[in-house]
Specification:
The protein has about 160 residues and is α/β, with parallel strands linked by helices.
Length: about 160
């Protein structure tokens, strides 16, 4: 293990959030359609495949300094999906499925919305497109619901709760 820099102590490191999250998709166009046209996010340039890595693109969730989600197209991708679990949760919101994890490391990506009005508008849009989602849950200072993207990846919409106390 190398020695820490003489100029910056560990406790002085200044993280600035997550720069981006890299994921795979079997179909980059379908993924961009979901994130841009359904969720209203911004897609950057599509980069060509290089040395075994498929075409790829950054999808940015709003006016943030982060680069967002970096999707790589990989036709043979094995993506853990939870559509059936979410369907059960949408029918039975207090199901034990709420407390289970998916096999695999990534459980979900939570995107922040500014208000409940925004969250409910997105929920209506998702419902119109047949997207599976959970009930709305209260988690203290936030409210949220989970839904799946076109790849079967769990996403979360989270916004500040208006509860006091």
């Amino acid at each position: 293990m190398s020695r820490p820099s003489e100029n910056i102590a560990y406790e002085e490191l200044q993280w600035q959030g997550i720069h981006h999250i890299a994921l795979v998709t079997r179909d980059l166009e379908a993924t961009l359609d979901f994130y841009v046209n359904l969720l209203g996010m911004q897609a950057g340039e599509i980069f060509p495949a290089v040395k075994g890595r498929g075409r790829h693109c950054f999808v940015k969730p709003g006016d943030t300094k982060t680069w967002g989600v970096h999707f790589f197209e990989y036709k043979e991708a094995q993506i853990f999906q939870s559509a059936e679990t979410l369907k059960r949760l949408s029918k039975e919101p207090i199901s034990e499925d709420l407390y289970r994890f998916l096999p695999g490391a990534l459980q979900h990506i939570a995107f922040a919305l500014p208000s409940e009005d925004n969250a409910l508008a997105l929920r209506d849009k998702l419902r119109l497109h047949g997207v599976v989602m959970t009930d709305i849950y209260n988690l203290g200072s936030i409210r949220n619901y989970i839904f799946i993207d076109n790849n079967g990846i769990q996403l979360e919409a989270a916004w500040p709760s208006n509860q006091t106390g």
